[in-house]
## 1
Amino acid sequence: MLSLGVNIDHIATLRQARYAASPEAYNVEPDLLAAAAASERAGASGITIHLRADRRHIQDRDVFRLRESITTKLNLEMGNTAEILDIALRVRPEEVCLVPENRAEITTEGGLDAAGQMRALAPTVERLHAVGIRVSLFIEPDARQIEAARQLGVAMVELHTGAFANATGAAQTDELRRLHHAAEHAHRFGLQVNAGHGINYTNIRKIRTLPHLAELNIGHSIIARALAVGLESAVAEMLAGMKGDA
Ligand code: PXP
């Protein structure tokens, strides 16, 4: 069954908007631990967070506290830097998703160039594997990147659905086809196929038609919907959409 990782970065963004300068910022509203627990109660199979080099939303302490509190699994998205790798090795999330990191972007804009960064990625993947962390690469739905994932020996890829989400009409159909081929390709190599970025309550109807999908990571749309209906209902509605019930 297709499972859902809820990305709660935006909840930290809201907290930081008010409390970034306060040392006690971790205990003030909105509470990330409560958000993670609500997502789990509603049926999420994991909690996803991105610890960025500039710490614009998730803070180091959040990562450690969530590690202690969540009962499903923690998926840590991270850029391939020594500093964040060191934290990941101490936190021991069940999963790490390696993503590109560009300080200027609001959120992750493009996939990781795994094919172009094999030499830098290989030792990181090895160190994460050595402590039992499953590794995913957030990549464009592109044959070269899937081949790189295979060569790096990771368990999973997360196909970047941003271009699909931003396209309309025939261009969107083309992007869906690219995702479809990439999912088939990755599956043939034995890679678990995940997807994320820009998935919402409308485009989920098309996303769910992709073959071999194991997990979606969704943040913005669920957190935005939660403002109207609460987080548990927002997660439950997305899960219904993933199943085809909505
Ligand atoms: N997957 C990855 C790797 C991401 O970096 C993000 C956030 O940009 C998401 C999924 C969730 O994207 P969204 O917030 O658009 O649902």
Note: The chain has one domain: 3-243.
## 2
Amino acid sequence: MRQQTGALYTMSYTSTLRIQLGKPTINGSKGGQPKLSENGCRGLQHRGVFCGSVQKSKMVLPENWKSNTVKTANEAEKVSDMKVPSAKVPCHLQVVKTSDKLLTVTFELCPQNGGELCVRKVKSPVPILTHAPNATRRLVREGPLPTVQEASQAESCPSPPPTTPQPEKAKAVTTKVWENREREGKRASCIALESPHKKSSVDNCRSVSFSDESAPSSPSKDPVSPKRKPQRSGDSLKIMNKVSQVEVKKGEQAELSCSIQGTPPLAASWVRNKKPVVESPRICAVTSETESRLLIREVCEEDGGSYTLCVQDQTGSVQHHTRLTVVDHPSPPAGKPLISGLQQSSLTLSWSGPSYDGGSAVLRYSIEVKQVGQDSWRLLTDTCTSTSYHVKEGLVPGEQYQFRVRAANAYGVSEAAAESDAVIMASTRDEDPDFEEPVEYTEVSLNSKDRVDDLYVKLEKLGMGKFGQVYKLQEKASGKICAGKYSKARLQKDIANARAEVELMNKLHHPRLVHCVAAFQEPGWVILVLEYIAGGELFERIVADDFEHTEITSIEYMSQILSGVGYMHQQSIVHLDLKPENIVCVSKVDTRVKIIDFGLARKLVPGVPVKVLQGTAEFVAPEVIAFEPVGFTTDMWSLGVICYILLSGESPFQGDNDMETLRNITSGNWEFDEETDAVLSDSAKDFIRRLLQKNMKSRLTAEQGLKHPWIKDKAISSTKTLSKEKMKKFLARQKWQKTGKAVLALKRMAMLSHRSDSTSSPSTDDDSESQKVFSFLQEQLQRPPVFSSLLKDHTEVAGSSARFHCHIEGFPDPEVLWFFSGSPIEESKRFKIEYEDSGSCTLIISDVSPADAGEYVCQASNSHGQAETSAKLTVHCLRAKRSARDGTGKTA
Ligand code: ATP
Ligand code: MG
């Protein structure tokens, strides 16, 4: 190592600190340590020891700092009398700005005992090197350098370099330093070395340690630039064995591991749900230079999710996502199975999937049955692949049964779900799907004598249509609940229309068609009192969570609609406004539906063409748009559209606006989208195809529809659960359209779909979270230079080459200066410095001569400190040796 001699310099810094105030001292107790604000801010330090404390009322610096009192300018009650007691070291503090939590101080420090100051997170450091002849200076070999980091917004100008006479060797070094400063525009009195990790040279501003000892004897005029590692390709850090999916059975140990190839030191962190994984007795992460492993013992459902390994080394950062799936048998199907389509010896069961599939797809369901009053359950099937099942065998008419369902995945079978309600198998009369409680239909005529309010109590609103509003009514006399459809009728035409609607309804006495109870004509209004249908609109009901949606349930609805429409057609009445909103459910618990809204219905008389320009764009038939005569099959087209939406959730002709929708209908081009095509049974597709025929004569009639195999023979239908998501969107769009906000709705839906897309790919949030993790990892990697392999003494023969080799670690990448007898070595033909990515550093001296003999020092420094290693080179002269050996004294 170099010899140390007396020092001649001291330094002072003018800088600005922002100090977070500690809690005020109470009764002389110790106040909280101030924390410096901002990243990595560790306080004013003096040889690694905090050298000052800031309390609300005063700032105290250590005893060897000059006493100084600083009055705050404007916030005397918050920070005042900043005492800097006792003083060997000149120090001047000036409070620039205070706030509740932050104190901004500019200060000038002139320690007399050498350059062992470390000021961390200094906002605007402009170290000023001043001449202080009496000061002593020592080389700092370990710990913090006399460093001022993170310079910015220089607030004072650098002083000129020292001019005091100094020993030749020392002068050589300092002169170089100052020349360097000057060349860089006198930004700061420190060597501003551009690090690959820092943006600006000023940011990385660093002062060298000044040695007053064994300074080089041959000062060079040009400054010697420190050696840096070569620019990295950026892909030297890699995660090798990328496993993207790990499945672990609940209760067992999960191990997520990745091999890492990088340049040590490495820092790694596992992140889950945007938060670093916290170690616990159950969870531990082990990272070496070649691998990072996350071990989770006794995994539970909550441990499942996406884990991201973030790795940082000096060359960069990488991350890898691994999905941990905790698998188990599924939980039981949610809720109890629902029973529908009850007949003498068959029924349809439907149920919801389990709330948790055990992390592995549910493959099948098993269904058991038991007769009420008996204990044993009988397996009906264990291979059902959908969430509904048509029980066709083994049920005795009149007997009472209960059903239960289990879900199975690759890892086992669930517990049984709740048992269904007990059901009595249908009697012969019950087999008629149109069987209803007997209704006393009455002939209704417009009542202009009574007022509806006199006879009915108006309750809540049930719905809203084009022509008015529908309210729940209670008949005062009987307490019976009805629905009142209030339509504005100011013109005679409106009253005539209302009268026509009532007259048509008088002919439509069928369990699948809403019937009219009474009708009132009041000034400006016509009120139709209708039977109350309690279950709400069909599509709303289908999307409700507790409702299974399959082809089989859809068939039940379609066959009822066909039955109602068939009856209408038999009465020579066309509805002309068949659409999902006009199909309502009888009750919340059964699957019976009714057709409502005969506001546009017309009686067709043979030979009298009826042309209409009415309806709802998405559902109207091509002949309506073409203003051609309508027929009974005009309704069948609309049923085709309803059925298409029912099974796919998509509206087959929907365009961006009504015009486009109508154009789509006229063109007659429609098809099933890929997804629907794959899901639906051929028979269902055929049914729709036969309804959506442009030529109205080619369409199925209601009667033919009821005989179509899809409707007639449910067994050939797909039992796959149909998605409700698209239907939800369809309903959302319809609602907005109703309120005239279709455009907005479309935009909103576009946003919705965008949002759902983005969940599949890493979001911006995730990215920013990763960034935070990487910043944290970079913080962790920070360390001063260390020589993991030191220089060794060498003896070489003159004319040969000498290699001094060492290995350097540190982050940010240390920069390297080599010295020979105290003087920095500049690379030349004879002096080569190799500094590799790995940290390996070699000085190669070719053609050595006795003049090269001496001490060589490798000095590595980064923003955290500096380290050195040295070794001696001895050079032998062969000829001299030989001469000595032969005793000839001759030269070779
Ligand atoms: P539009 O022509 O726009 O369909 P409209 O003015 O002809 O509307 P309806 O369709 O008859 O009115 O009724 C509007 C809404 O009121 C229905 O969609 C339904 O939600 C509700 N509604 C109508 N009739 C009944 C009823 N009998 N029982 C319960 N709710 C009903
Ligand atoms: Mg309606």
Note: The longest strand covers residues 9-20.
